[in-house]
Amino acid sequence: xxxxxxxxxxxxxxxxVVLLAVNSGSLVGxxxxxxxxxxxxxxxxDGGFNFHLKYVIQPGIQLITGVGGxxxxxxxxxxxxxxxxxxxxxxxxxxxxxxxxxAKMSKLRDFDFSxxxx
Length: 118
What we know:
- By secondary structure, this protein is mostly beta strands.
- It has a single domain (3-108), classed as Glycoprotein, Type 4 Pilin.
- It has strands at 3-11, 14-23, 26-31, 36-43, 49-57, 74-82, 88-96, 99-109.
- It is globular, with a radius of gyration of 15 Å.
């Protein structure tokens, strides 16, 4: 599970790309709209994963869900479940507090700290 991931998100109001780093169950990320994500990933008994994300929507940020922006910084907690093959290009629908988004995720690379440094 550890590594770098890309999530291609689409909603009624637009799209964005999220880059995520997952290491030992911890997660950090950033998207092209300026949102920063922190959270965790837990394996499920069925082979899938539970994602727990927190982020803060700042005033002036346009939401891809099509809902208008926020007037004050708004913290968001988002929990969702994905199947074991979530990074294979399967399109997933995630319900956010501001409306649904579709996500297509792929793994970009593993962490490989044993590779020779040049």
